[in-house]
Structure prediction request, 221 residues.
Amino acid sequence: MSSILDIDLDYFNLIENPEQRLQELLDWGDCPIAFIVEKHHKAYSRWKDRVKRGILTQPSHILHVDEHHDMMDQKRNANIANFMYHAMQTWKNSRVHWMVDTPIDSPAMWLDNDVWKSFSHRFSLGPNRPHGWPKPDIVSICTSPNFISNDLLQRLLRSIQKFMTGCTGEAYTGNSVSRRGDRTPFSIRLQEVQARRKQPEESFADAVNLTIYRKYLTNKD
Prediction:
């Protein structure tokens, strides 16, 4: 069984010293960043692909560092709002810890009662890692450019440079092609990720999900 460190950069929106906190997480993980994605459910797709190819064993632990729990619905297809639900459904023995300082809500609000009952004993939340949580076998980063300012995004991307250098896994470089053993200079990868932000949204469905989530957050008491 394996452990995943799953970091969404929007987690750092309300965190003091965000670059330092990110580097502390990565120092603890002691594992190179495997890839960077813009849409969080794309990380889930890459985890599944690694498991399918035997590169990664089925995850037993997922440390979900994120402003959102990403279990907002039970739709058949994974999207940015529900992919963690899919992860818990796919890997029945996996434990998920949602690392969050101030949770906006609970997955129990969004999932059917029977589904949440089957998940709840494997799900925890809080600002710190649970005691004895295993170090990651893989680290993935999501930039979530629609949920984070451009200034903070660029600062955080620059701060992870040393964790990307020499990475021998896949590297997300702003297109749909993954390259094993990619040793492209980090500065070029960073430029490509930043350039990607200027392109249109991937799909209408993703845009709808973002609109719904923003409306919910705006109207929440």
About this structure: Residues 166-189, 196-221 have pLDDT under 50 and may be disordered. The two ends are 40 Å apart (CA to CA). Helices lie at 18-29, 40-52, 83-90, 113-120, 150-159, 161-164, 186-196, 204-219. DSSP finds eight helices and six strands in the chain.
